[in-house]
Design a protein that fits this description.
- The protein has about 160 residues and is of the alpha+beta class.
- It is about 40% helix and about 25% strand.
- It has 3 helices and 5 strands.
- It starts with a helix and ends in a 15-residue tail after the last strand.
Length: about 160
């Protein structure tokens, strides 16, 4: 009788120990996933959606007479869109580059947005248009602040 009691006690104690180990392991995995999710969520909330930036800049481009004369008045976003964050862990800005197409031609638009800019319209630090004929139009910022220097030539 004592043998069965000791044997049951050992199995119960072993079961509790395994349960604690599994619980601690799952808690660690869960907290790690929560930390990664919080990081990405905070980064996502710190900057505007790149599509919002694109849509808020299109009316400015449509209103510009030089853009209308070279590309056309019916501007639409093209197939090429890209964005990146600059500044490392605490990004200083979001850089966006996208293509616009019109009746006559197409152009590449470079846009730099600070992290405090949320909602529509997006407040941009840099707005530069590179046309297919090689011309460059600087609407805001400087020509040196193009996202990808030398890669904006369209064929």
């Amino acid at each position: 009788m004592v043998y069965h009691y000791v044997q049951d006690y050992v199995h119960t104690k072993d079961f509790r120990r395994k349960t604690k180990i599994v619980t601690v392991y799952l808690a660690g995995v869960g907290s790690g996933l929560a930390a990664v999710g919080a990081f990405f969520l905070s980064r996502r909330l710190a900057f505007p959606n790149p599509n919002h930036a694109l849509m808020s800049v299109l009316p400015t481009l449509r209103a510009n007479p030089e853009v209308r004369s070279i590309v056309g008045s019916n501007l639409k976003p093209g197939l090429f869109k890209t964005y990146s964050y600059i500044g490392g862990f605490r990004p200083r800005a979001q850089q966006t580059m996208f293509q616009v197409c019109g009746e006559h031609s197409s152009a590449m638009v470079t846009l730099q947005v600070p992290p405090q800019s949320k909602g529509i319209p997006v407040q941009c630090k840099t707005l530069i248009v590179d046309f297919a004929n090689g011309e460059r139009l600087v609407l805001k910022g400087t020509a040196e602040s193009v996202v990808f220097q030398g890669y904006t030539t369209l064929t």
